[in-house]
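Tutorial, part two.
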Amino acid sequence: MGRGFRENLRLLVALLGLSALAGSAKASLIPSGVDVWFSTSSYAIAFGGPVTPLIAPDNLYDLSGKRIFSNGDLLRKFAPARWFMSFGHGLDALTMVRQGDSGAPIPWFSTSRTFYSNTYHRNIGEGDLLSRDGSIVATNQALLAKFSPSSTASAGLDGVDLINPGASQEIWFSTRNNFYSNKLGKQVTSGDILSNTGQIIATNADLLAAFKPSKPGVNYGLDAMHVVSMQQGQTPVIWFSTNRDFYSNALKRVVSQGDILSNTGQVIASNTEVMSKFGWHFPANPGLDVIAFAPSGNMVNISRAIDEGGTGKTVVPDPATMCLLVAGMAGGLTVRRRI
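Running the prediction step on this input gives:
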């Protein structure tokens, strides 16, 4: 039996929703009492959970199986021309941003489809970064401007996190499509973490290095991202999800597109754990598009669950970090104030 056949067989097992059997020991590093919000990558049918049978990737759910926001809730102030607002425009990126020192966090997000806004009397692009308060934070072209892309077409938006909330407003993000950067003189892939300053923060290979993928040259994508901690002298701890399954030589098992991963090489939570309150559902692994902490979530508690390289040393993030969960690796970074 050849190596290629064995790898394909392992991936097939994951697609059938059986990957949890390959490493189903309770591995979740999300502490009890910390709620998580997420959306799936695909539609699913669930039986036995507290939600309606249809799980839509346009909506935001929590770990108890309840819907937090519908697509219509997020887009209401944009007044989409489409009359049936509860779903249909997609949800590709999300981060929770605190407005001022005492304001409640508000979702920043992107849709996966262009739609016409009756509020703005024009189309809003699939890769534009929007706020639930009805404002356009940044167009896709503005996010990519300093890369000097060879095309003016939208590259989409898959993951996002606000790194510097000051006047410079540095935003890290990933795109849904590859594009060529005239500034860098090379192709930028959909699995890379980028900055609106025109830098590649981490390539997809950087993000997955600790997992030792069996096919290291493959781009496994980046669906959702959040920088959990940035401490001076330490590698930032970042949690993320991919949009393709891969076999990890470090873990000796398949890692699925629906798992929450850390750049430390850990599976923070399997998709089975994330979806555990939804009852039986099909497909068994509908993937993850965005993941966010509920506004009351305590990120300091989460830091206690992260063991840096097995040394027992934990990274304590800024207590004010209450944003999106998920993302990749970035070396040699300076300390920046978190939301």
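Residues 3-310 form one domain. In part three we will examine how such features are distributed along the chain.
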